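Quick check before the chapter quiz. The format below is the same one you will see on the exam, so make sure you can read both the input and the output lines.
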Amino acid sequence: MDALLRIKAKVSGVGEVRNLMGSLVGVEDAARSAAKELKETRDASNGWRASALSITAMGAALVAGSKAAIDFESSMSDVRKVVSGLDTPKALGEIKSEILALSSQMPITAKGFTEIYAAAGASGIARGELREFSVLVAKVSTAFDMTAQEAGTALAQMRVSLGLSTKQVASLADAMNYVSDVSGASAAGLVEFMTRSGATGKIAGLSAQETMAFGAAMQQTGVETEIAATSFNNMIKALSAGKSMTDRQVSALNDLGYAFKPAITGERDFSQEVEEQSRKRIEIAED
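Here is the expected output.
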């Protein structure tokens, strides 16, 4: 039973696939022990029940192990489809070993890491960056109470749409984590807000952290994430309307201290100001 329990722990935990074959030796030993017990205690009902339990547990461990291995291989097929450079058995074996090593170091299953790799590969993240990105996703998944697949898809989308490096995405995740700790906004909600509105904020000239701060401010007042994102996108759209702005919108901006004027007018005014300042400096130099 001890051997079977060890197998179950390995199959259910972080090293479920890598250690399966080695653990089958323990199954054989347990099977021999169970057979001997059946023979010696078949007339004792208590002993018979104990032996039956041993055999049942053995079968359950084998089924769980087989399912884990099948799930892992099935998930790896998704990784092969979207990650380039996995055409050879050597390359495929290397990425399998990499994923299994990560699953033994972090609280994400091997299948969970294959989902992260697949989401990252589908977003165009290069093979050489997959490990670093996956470690970040695993940390975010754990800290933000998200599934590995949810976190992987969201961070990959933000990385691409905002044009960020993995380190910059990590910095943004740190900011989300800090804001969620000191405000009423949830980290998972901020991730969703950024996937919906991050690109819009970038178009408006806002940094990723500034856009995220808008989302946190709205969430803190009790606004749902989807509504907050829609409101933010509409606000940016209105502010960038240019000549198509309504009189009411222009009036509202004037009340806030903004003056609306065509770009060509602004350029002329600035040019005149520069020329005036240059003329004054020349006069001072002459004097």
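If your answer matched, good. Residues 45-82 form the longest helix (38 residues).
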